[in-house]
Structures are given as structure tokens and as C-alpha cells.
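Single-chain item
Fold in C-alpha cell form
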Amino acid sequence: MKHTESAEGKSVRLLKIGEQIRHRLAEVLQRGEVNDPVLDGMIVSVSEVRVSPDLRHATAFVKAIGSDDEAMLKALRKNVRFLRGQVSRALSTKYTPELKFRLDESYAEASRIDALLRSPDVARDLDDDTETKADDNEP
């Protein structure tokens, strides 16, 4: 059997299963199927799910939009058995991975980079660089 890998080095199968899990988790959380008062009315973003090569473990990266991240993580961890059961219905694999939830830090990192790029020092450096390139192109 041919082993296909993506540009990131992960097998395409692992990426597909991770996406299936992500879609199912997002669907369950969006519909409010989890019977938990903390998660009721909370918007939870599931940005990525990474699956281990043996398909036994999956880490979901989540972020509460406009709410308390720590309370959301605690509620998700408390309801992990229910969520795993919901995921198992969407997968056609021999095993359903154990789910772990981690806070997605990519939003904070993106905001930090955006603020950095908008800072006056960087804008000045970018303007200087464009002027230098324009001067180099003139005959």
C-alpha cells in the first residue's frame, strides 16, 4: 500500500480523520448538544484536530469566542465521554481516539503579529524599503 504524505509530512489519512473529528466536534458544539450550562450559549471555535499516527489520541485546539477560555476547557474535559461518543458516530475507523482539548493560541499570536506589522517603526521600515527598491529600478 502506498503511503501518501502531505507537504507538512503528515499522512493524508491522518489529516482527513482530523478534519472529520473537527467537523463533528464543531457541529455538536454549535447545535448545543452538550448538556452543560457552561457551554450553553457559548461560541466555541475548533480550529484544528491533530491525530496521533496510531489513531488512538486526538488533540483538539479550541477557543471560546467572547467567553472564558478556562471555563470552556473545564466543561469540555468534563463532557469528553459524550463528545467522544458523538465523534465515534462520524468515523469509520476501528478505534475512536481519546480526545484531549487544548487552548488554541494561534489567535493571540495572529493578533500580536498584526499589531507588530501596524506599529509605526515597522511601517517606516517598510516605506524605506519600497523607496529603495524604486530607486534601484530607475535607469
Observations:
- The mean pLDDT is 83.
